[in-house]
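Reviewers asked in the last cycle whether our approach scales beyond single polypeptides. To address this, we selected a multi-component target totalling 1013 residues and predicted its structure end to end. The input consisted of the following lines:
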Amino acid sequence: MVSFELSLLTTEIIMAVLGLGLFVIGLILPRGSRKGMFPITLFALLGVLAFAIYDFFYGQTGAFLQGMYMHDQFASFLRILFLVAAILVVLSTKDYVAQFQAYRGEFYPLLLLATLGMMLMAGSGDLITMYVGLELMTISFYILVAYKPNDPKSSEAGIKYLVLGAASSAVLLYGVSLIYGLTGNTQLNAIAYALGGDVNPVVILATVMMLAGFGFKISLIPFHMWAPDIYEGAPSPVTAFLATASKAAGFAALVRFYVLMLYNTSMAETGMVILLVLAALTMIVGNLMAIPQKNIQRLMAYSGIAQAGYVMVGVIAVSIASAAGGANPVTAFIDGIKGVLFYLMIYIFANLGAFAVITHVAQTQGSTEIKDYAGLARRSPLAAAVLTVSLLALAGIPPLAGFVGKFYLFSAAINQGHVWIAVIGFVMSMISVYYYLSVVKVMYLGDGEGLAEAPVRGAAKFGMVFSMIVTIVLGIYPTPLAQMAITAATSLVR
Amino acid sequence: MSTLAFQPEVGSLILPFALLAPILAAFLIVFIPKEEGKTIKLVAAIGTLTSLLLSLYVFFAYDRSLAGMQFALTIPLVPDIGVNLAFGVDGISIPMMLLTNLIGFTAVYSSWNIDKRPKEFFVLLLILISGVMGTFIATDLFIFFLFYEIVVIPIYIMVIIWGSSKRVTKEYAGMKLTIYLLIGSALLLVAMVSLWVNATNQLAAMGQGPTFMFADLAKLEFDQNFQIFCFGLLTLGFGSLISMFPFHSWSPDGYAGAPTAVSMIHAGVLKKIGGYGLIRLGLMVFPLGAKFWAPVIAILAVINVLYAAFIALAQKDLKYVVGYSSVSHMGYVLIAVAALNLTSINGAVAMMFAHGVMSALFFSMIGFIYEKTHTRNIADLGGLAHQMPRLAAGFLIAGMAGLGLPGTVNFIGEFTIFIGTVKALPVHAVIGIAGIIFTAVYSLRLIANVLFGPRRKEWDHLQDLRGPELVPLVVLVFVIFVTGMFPNTVLQLIDTGVQSSGLAKVLEAVSQAKIGGLF
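The resulting structure, written as structure tokens, was:
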């Protein structure tokens, strides 16, 4: 019986129509009035977000086309996350995009298509759907990264991302083809069933290939080399979106793939060992490399790498639970996924708060160097406060949201007996305070003489204040988000 | 019996009010224009005074015959991991809470002459005071940590903006202090999460939900190795906070770089969170771990006492002398904790209170000296008693309290510690007592070189303390002598805390337990 309920795909269809429609609108509108693209995109996204939230709580769930595409709360949660990220990015771009003049019309549609790609990844129940979503996202990003006209750095970043992204896709596809060769199937459920308890080198190779492919997207060490250069060269809002939503989408796909692969002992164990080592390395190297950075977007790139390491700890907690078949695998499973989802959502808000400020400074001062943040506290107290709060939230200083997030992640790992990885995680996150604080120091201590006043206005101000408030409130009262994350995680258990 | 004290259904709102008063003041200050320095200071003073009065009320209204946690309030905050917004005080936490507010109030007055960005300064100071107070009144481990980590960042910002660069730059001092405390807290977090996971599994087996409440955690029994592991982490974490050797080096540098108010709060109360945490969490929840690590702590503590006192002898900067002296004094607290008996724990808490008051007074006076003379170099100073008799009196009393002169509360603390420790660790205690000789030498030398000697012409223009500057002097000296003359006001309270919190029983059980220890 083939289920073909299109209503399950409402959000995705709206997004596709919106994205393509905006392309057309962008072409039809005369040049002078293309600034209208901003409110159209913003309000359309808000509408979709409202629907996505309704869908999460009251919508129907089910598998589309015999499990090609899953419409469960896990996907819905991530859909909300991507939309929130897109909205926050759009809010910060109002004045920034104005400098693109002629190409202004295409910026927002590309952003929407990238978001659609992420949604497909989060909902995919099949390796092909996953790949299609991933490519839709990545190809939109190839263009967006190189979006700054006449900026060699941006073009260089675009080319680099294209080459490296294509290579990583190739690796991923190789993994997919190996799995298809072994099982004759691309559907995750069927693969898990077909592999059974088989242990052989090919399965291990396939696992490694798949992990490498996903590892690139979430900038896990040693697949992180692209991140600093591309984050530095890309336009600030694009970096923001790339650093947050794209990473979350990578995790979504990884979790989907991983959770089902866990039924196979060989895959689970290979994956677990690899991921444990990589997560530890990612946390250590990411944080240490961030310390000497002079450019804030590079700094955020390394900080993002380290953050990916923390989230990976949550994924590991899941894998151990199912592999070892501990006392209560289901709770352990939910704890891990809950931690991952909760942390990703917080990561979005904290990072986008920081990037709203970075975008603002990039646009008013034309610089992303940390030294140009001197005296920002005096020139724009709000921006400085938002950046401080966001960075401290990323460092996991209570009462900001990052602390609770890390608690969820690391308690899940400790529950599986991996105390040492939690030790590394906590110590490294305290070390991260060092480089986050050095940015704060520049903002509050420096004179910033000769630098322009940089008051924040309008949409950007709203975006900043909103993300700051959410970061603080979720730190003090995380229950609602935690409940949502639990619901989403539970929907993965069948 | 006080009617307010016990209303378990409703809970008492006094503690949250005391906690919120400084926050509220900080919030008000945000809206005062930055030119109105006077108003800002006044609002800060009122905020801290409110907390001080409320904690005095708690101090006197606490029902000593009933003991136990009083003025309790519990609001479930994050049910899925069992976090409660829980406050309550017993005989151990009341002295610390009172101390926090005494120092908070006087710190505001010690900063009365600050005119560089006063608005930000007082906002951060008030957040800091509130954060420290929160750790002492929290009865939930998670909330305890939350408040502890809240204080770290304001301290960093205050040091780098309002601090002073002498032997080391203020940026270096601030970062060193922050990193030491944060790495320490990372280890504490590991212990906390491990404890929570272990407790949750135990509770789940009994069909109960997870919890972070100190009282509930203390009821559970943990595996011996697990206790040893966790207490080891706590020793490192709280040890670096209480400046245990060899994790003490942030303390003198940090105090020297920090502005007066931060030095007062940091040396006065923040450090004590380490001792408080070891008693409240370490001894009560991991008694066997404590027994295992006690010999190690005892030895490190003796090194603390002697080594730091010795180094203090050689210092040229006033703040470094007091910085090292505070490291040395914390050694006594650690010895007392390691002795693991009722008397010594009583002494430890009393000592923390006494040292808090004394070091706050010391730093406050040094702050004024520096403000007026622009130097902290002992060699440049001298004969200040001629020009500034009031300041000299305060400095002298702080010095005398520091070396444990009878009549001051510090004498009571040290004496109780020695009585308690001699029983359990005679050798350590005797060596520790010898440390008092060093303390006397550097204190007297300091007092002689700074206050006495021939009148120096270059200081003739200095004005003695007056007006608001007198507040720290009067309040803290008053406390030192009143509690010194009537030690029972504090000691009896501490004793009820130690008895009723179940620590007495725990310690008794520990003394029976045979687990070799490390030596």
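Chain B touches chain A at residues 77-81, 145-146, 149-150, 152-153, 156-157, 160-161, 171, 175, 178-179, 182-183, 185-187, 189-190, 193-194, 196-197, 200-201, 204 (CB under 8 Å). We regard this as preliminary and will revisit it once experimental data from Aim 1 are available.
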